[in-house]
Amino acid sequence: MLEQPGDREKRLGVDRKKSSALLEKHKQAFTGKVVLEEGAYRFEPLNEPGTLLKLTRARRESEFESGQILLRKYYEKTITVNGTRTDDWIWGADITGQYVPPGASTGPNMNAPKQERP
């Protein structure tokens, strides 16, 4: 059975309230590849192999899940993201560019496998 948002905190006994206050943004630039890991698309920074991050446009912690950026169309592509990193999120994220190897398709990768969970 798929784990739902918040199930992990309940299972681990963590009671973490999400703030609805507007967070202070410290913009950084990240470059990495979009990978499919355990049924979900995640951003893997080139300078931190094995670290998987989620991207969101939201600026409030309580809105991170609802503002999550779907990365399926960037699958197996290298992208540049501007945003602020907190835990396993890059929030206030803007995808500013993508690198496509010579001869590869420049459009979205809609042949990517369907995502099993958000």
Write structural notes for this entry.
- With 118 residues, this protein is mainly beta.
- The chain has a domain at 26-99: OB fold (Dihydrolipoamide Acetyltransferase, E2P) (Beta Barrel), CATH 2.40.50.
- 5% of the residues lie in helices and 32% in strands.
- The protein has one helix spanning 7-12, and strands at residues 28-37, 40-45, 54-55, 78-86, 89-99.
- The radius of gyration is 15 Å and the shape is globular.
| CATH topology tier name of the domain at 26-99 | OB fold (Dihydrolipoamide Acetyltransferase, E2P)
Task: Give the overall shape.
Answer: globular
Helix content: under 10%
CATH class of the domain at 26-99: Mainly Beta
N- to C-terminal distance: 14 Å
Ranges with pLDDT <50 over ≥5 residues? none
Biggest beta-sheet profile? 5 strands, mixed
Subunit organisation of the chains: single chain
The total count of strands amounts to: 5
Write the H/E string, N to C.
Answer: HEEEEE
Counted by DSSP, the helix tally is 1
Return Rg in Å.
Answer: 15 Å
Strand arrangement in the largest pleated sheet: 2-1-4-5-3
Strand content: 25-35%
